[in-house]
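Aim 2 progress update. The chain analyzed this quarter is reproduced below.
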Amino acid sequence: MFTKKKIIQFLVIALLFISAVLWIYHQLSVSFTEYADERNYREIELFADTAPSELDEDSATEWLATVSDMIPGARSAYLIYDEDLFDFVPLAGSPAILSLFESERESNAFVRALDSCYYLEPMVMSTLYTVDYSLDSDSLVSEAAPSQLYFIPVADESGAFTIGAIMIAVPDTAVSGYENLMRTLLIGATVLFLVIAFILMFTRDPMTGFLVLGLFIIVGLFVAFPIFEAIRLSFIRNGRFSMQTWKECLSPTYLQALWGSLKLGVLTATFSTFVGFLFAFLIERTSFKAKKLMTTLATMPVISPPFSLSLSIILLFGNNGLISKQILHLDASIYGLGGLVLVETIGMFPIAFMTLSGILRQIDSTVEDAALDLSATRWQAFCTVTLPLAVPGILSAWLLVFTNSLADFANPLLLSGDYRVLSTEAYMLVTGRNNLGAGSALSFLLLLPTLTAFLAQRFWVSRKSYVTVTGKPSTTLTDLTNRPVRIALETVSWLIMSFILILYVTIVAGCFVKNWGIDYTFTLANWGEALSRGWTSIRDTVTLAAIATPIAGILAMIAAMLIVRKKFPGKRLLEILIMTPYAIPGTLIGISYILAFNKPPILLVGTGAIIVINYVIRELPVGVENGIAALHQIDPAIEEAASDLGADVNTVFRTIVLPLVRPAFISSMSYTFVRSMTAVSAIIFLISARWNHLTVLIFNFSENLRFGLASVLSTVLIAIVLAVFFLMNAIVRDGKLTEKTISTR
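Predicted structure tokens:
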């Protein structure tokens, strides 16, 4: 591929393109500079014409202050000509301009400028001068900045003699900002063009190269860049480089909070994965009858705001809870590690369930049948065949719950009590003390355990083969449980579901009482007020989530296929960047996006696009993990056969890979929609007057103790998500590839 001819062609193309870009940059820069200078000069001439006929210090000060109305950021000073001294003397003006005049008045350039004013000739200084605008308390520019200086003479009534001169400084922010913007865009265009040309000329599979390039651009722009902006703040204090923030964040207090986060994450991930596997096994690998009902109930905890279950737990089992205090008269407190593990396990086990459900559904049951035919017991078949084949899904589910638990701040904020976790510490620093640098540093610490778990999971999975889908699907499923075991599994599952339903009944009941815990009078007033105040938020939330869902689903499957099936430079880096958003508190993601996308060339803050991008990037790891776990079970020979028959990468993905990973694809899209509808932490910083979000409104109602209104909107949100779930399963049904008939032995 790397022939001498192609290398020469590439270098010639690169040289021509770079030359064209440099010429374009030079022309645009010169044109804009000339335009800015001409515009400023016209405005300054108009300003000079408004000079009062008689000037004293007070009138001059009042008049000079109006220059910023004509030219934003401009500052000025009035120099009166003293005939006795034969020189210009400052009368009034901006402290910043007067300071510059005093320091430079003896320089040759200033002497020539004042001589020109004496002969009634205006002068524009050929070089930029640094003006310390911090001397002016009302200046738009709060620091020293390069500025263009203008000296404009003021004549007497006859117009023949000079009576003074106006010295005006205009910050060079517009020109420098335009040049920086053009430089960034043109450099980006050059790099993109050269990479595309390289892929076309030196790779055998350009489509794969373009897909990898596209993913790197997406994660680089919307993951690495915002994180870099946030981390950069952790090394800056008072505008200068400093390690003081990190010294404070590595103190014993915050290290204790980090240990608390790790302990909470491990416990939550372990219990959630166990419960999720129990439900997934019961539904996918046994002859359990109420599968659709149980699937719906098992996904309910993720289709409500993350803090709603905490509120239900507090209302039922808090210090003055309905059950703990008023019915059972218990003194035990739900606050602390135990309560957090309980709430997070209930709220996050659906993540494990949705991941493991698709994995267990994909396992070819003929392997289990072979074990049973060789006289293995059901338990032996489960331990030696089913469980080992589900290892990629189990590890993926554990990792997703672990990272989600580390990043959660809403539940700890309500239930932690004296138990400290790092996510709430970072949240309080960012929102309570407005210390973005310290919040960034604490959040960065959460990446270390997540990346460690991620790399350990990848190493474990890569050591073995988990292929079961070979192109000949089985249509039957042997139930590995006997009747007593199945009854035990069903009993445990229904007990867990009953407890969860009690929590949701509390939410629904709150819709019909005036004030839960104080006044239980029945009322329907909550519905009218909540729907009238929340209609705009409902519409915006559904619209943005519907846009993000297919984008995240398709991107996840493409990324999973490339990671599992292709070899390319930077594969491990791409995996890490994709997984990174899941380990960072949503609060920091929201702040990072504001820092990164609140200025040119990518100005997204205040638009719906930044909310959609946040949805996609935040939930992409779930889809990628589902896709990777599913692809580990599919024999690559199927795709190789299609490629040998002339199918390109796009055709193989569309006709082979996507149908085989359909359960994982549906799960990832469903999860993206759910999490988009129920997002809080990052979205609370990204909403604007044009785009509201339902969960933020629910959170505001909860903070203001309007539990009735919060319950109504939570109920509406749950109903919407359930309706979309049923619609998605009706439109995108699993093919017969994964449908199985249950048989018993």
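The domain at 54-171 is CATH 3.30.450.40 (Beta-Lactamase). The chain has three domains: 1-49+174-202, 54-171, 244-743. These observations will guide the mutagenesis experiments scheduled for the next reporting period.
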